[in-house]
Amino acid sequence: MGDTGAEAVSPVLRQEPPAMPRLAVYALVVCLLAVAAAVVSFAEGSVLIGVVWILLAGLSSNMTWYYVRRGRAGS
């Protein structure tokens, strides 16, 4: 009896979600730490330093989104 090819199993291609780029993870960590530092600064009454920490958190948040999108685009 010949091989009809019915037993041949085509490989199933599963797409796994792309891993988060390393720079995006670092920027996310910086963002979370900056938010925590801002909360501490505001709690201690240092408004000017708290504002600086909030600005740093915003910058690192934008960097996180940039690196995530760049990683998804495959560049």
Give a summary of the structure in a few sentences.
The chain is built from two helices and no strands. The chain has 75 residues and is mainly α.
Describe the protein in words.
This protein is mainly alpha-helical. The protein is 65% helix and 0% strand. It has helices spanning 22-43, 47-73. The N and C termini lie far apart (51 Å).
Mean pLDDT: 87
Radius of gyration: 23 Å
Number of helices: 2
Q: Report the sheet with the most strands, covering strand number, pairing sense and barrel closure.
A: none
What is the end-to-end distance? Answer: 51 Å
Instruction: Point out poorly predicted stretches.
Output: none
How many beta-strand segments? 0
Q: What key phrases describe this protein's structure?
A:
single chain; 75 residues; mainly alpha
Write the layout of secondary structure elements.
Elements: H1 22-43, H2 47-73
Helix pairs in contact: 1-2
